[in-house]
Amino acid sequence: MEIIERIRRQDVRAIARLMSLVENNAPEATAALKELYPITGQAFIVGITGPPGSGKSTLTDQLTKEFRRDGKTVGIIAVDPTSPFTGGAILADRIRMQQHSLDAGVFIRSMATRGHLGGLARATGDVVNVLDAAGKELILVETVGVGQDEVEVVKTADTCVVVSVPGLGDDVQAIKAGILEIADIFVVNKADREGADKTVTELQAMMGLGPGRSDWSPPILKTVATQGQGIAELVQGILAHRAHLDRRGLRQMRQRERSRALFLELLQEQGTRRLLERASANGTLEHTIERIAKREMDPYSAVEELLAKAGL
Ligand SMILES: Nc1nc2c(ncn2[C@@H]2O[C@H](COP(=O)(O)OP(=O)(O)OP(=O)(O)O)[C@@H](O)[C@H]2O)c(=O)[nH]1
Ligand SMILES: [Mg+2]
Fold first, then answer.
1. What would the pLDDT profile of 82-96 be if each residue is shown by its tens digit?
2. Same domain for 292 and 167
3. What CA–CA distance (Å, rounded) separates 87 from 119?
4. Is the CB–ligand 1 distance for residue 110 below 6 Å?
5. CA 18 to each of CA 126, 172, 278: distance values in angstroms, whole numbers, following the listed order
6. Stated pTM of the model
7. In testing the pocket of ligand 1, which one of 48, 57, 79, 163 has its CB within 8 Å of the most ligand atoms?
8. Contact 265, 125 (CB under 8 A)
9. Are 230 and 182 part of one and the same domain?
């Protein structure tokens, strides 16, 4: 397939085209992803999550600069939960990232979460695989830490950076349940603002409460992303975490978690779709729903019956 060769040669237009196909769930995308899969698994994946406006994109931008200086190729995926019709955040990211736009060693992609009902982790996984196959050594995945879907997206990164900012309340606010456990590194960005040390203390206290994921104790780093302050330390933190993963053989474990997430999501997506297609085609679906609504049948038995008919 021509597109495969072009992606392996890091052809930017081929990468962009395949990503669009992936986002639109096009059949050609699946064919290409199948062929590319064996050469993936090389990239190091860093997830960056945190509340809206906490400076994730600015941090991503600064990290990109640092890693480029070091000669590493970088792929950036900004998962954007806002509607593409307002598009503000996407536009802002694009403008900010423009300094990298002429750099062939950087590929930036914004993904709207709209239209990926539940399949966001899968779509992101696919896009990560495209960038991985295209030889990007480092892949930065930015998501707003608002919902379970977004957490799922970054959870299986090799290194997960959780960003917070000072002054969002006593309870370290948007560091919601589920986020704390996935952090490998905490960043308190906007440390030029009042209360950064208080936020650090709060995070330390919160970390003392729960069991960590491993014997890695997540560092808490202060940054001023707009001025590049603390970025070198963040890079060091990421590299130290990577070394920790390698030492402990944990990188394979995260890879395995990514494989699991992608496989299970695909199975869920396609399994459900096929069952529904079959049930819709012969009219069973609507008929069953009507009977459930009329209390002639309960939904529990209906599901069992449908699955039994499919031999499951
Ligand atoms: N004072 C201060 N402002 C910052 C800092 N980092 C980022 N900002 C500003 O905060 C605003 C939001 O930054 P972004 O990088 O777009 O934040 P984000 O988390 O990517 O935002 P969303 O993707 O929309 O959730 C911008 O106006 C930045 O210039 C910082 O360290 N200090
Ligand atoms: Mg952003």
1. 544 334 445 555 555
2. no
3. 21
4. no
5. 10, 39, 29
6. 0.89
7. 57
8. yes
9. yes
